[in-house]
Specification:
This protein has 227 residues and is mainly beta. It is built from no helices and 17 strands.
């Protein structure tokens, strides 16, 4: 835990019992809760803001793995007490979890199948969920498949979405979810969904170039989900 002194001029690291080793992958905040995705332990620690009092740890959500970085996590846009996680470790590859932030409990909702049997889905960077009427949409962005770090091979990058997936932990059997892919030349590391006042759902997404000298197209897209 990091503490900022009252002057706002100093920040110190304070390790307490139960603290994880420093090395946070990243953190998200919705002004009620903070999601702390600790590097390398496959867990999401949940913090609760307490007004003027110090934030408190609600608990650490178990999302089906003890290793690997949690990199696709987001808050529910309609409920500040809910978050979603996409699994990328071998133990939870493709699994989507809902986290009840009031007690840091995680429930597996469904599993996204592989695009192809020999191509692991471990490159998804973003997950977002939107509700439109009676329909629930989950939108994913990143690499649908890619070679392991340091290796060469073919890859496919982009954004795809799922409408009304199972909520009992079952794997999606219909591979037509990949018909919704919007292709990008590199991994989509930034994606955000939006809901219009009439209920229409959109997502904005952009890819990245790891080497500014390399010839890789940069794309920024705004796409409406018409289904």
């Amino acid at each position: 835990m990091f503490k900022i002194d009252n002057s706002g001029e100093d920040i110190t690291l304070q390790l307490q019992a139960g603290d994880q080793t420093p090395g946070t992958h990243w953190m998200l905040d919705n002004q009620t809760y903070v999601l702390d995705c600790a590097s390398g332990n496959g867990q999401v620690r949940v913090w609760k803001w307490n007004g003027n009092d110090a934030p408190a740890v609600t608990g650490s959500a178990n999302v089906g793995a003890s290793t690997g970085n949690v990199q696709a996590v987001s808050f529910d846009n309609d409920n500040a007490g809910i978050a979603y996680v996409f699994g990328r470790a071998a133990a939870n590859e493709g699994d989507v979890y809902k986290i009840d932030l009031t007690n840091a409990s995680a429930v597996k909702l469904f599993k996204v199948p592989r695009y192809a049997e020999d191509k692991a889905i471990t490159g998804i960077w973003t997950i977002q969920a939107e509700t439109r009427g009676d329909n629930k949409y989950f939108v994913f962005g990143g690499s649908i498949y890619a070679p392991a770090r340091g290796q060469t091979g073919d890859s496919k990058h982009g954004v795809f979405w799922v409408k009304n997936p199972p909520s009992n932990g079952a794997e999606i059997a219909d591979a037509s979810i990949f018909d919704t892919i919007s292709d990008f030349p590199t991994a989509v590391r930034t994606m955000k969904t939006f809901k219009a006042s009439n209920g229409d759902v959109f997502y904005a997404a952009k890819n990245y170039t790891s080497n500014p000298i390399a010839e890789a197209d940069y794309r920024l897209r705004l796409i409406k989900i018409d289904n």
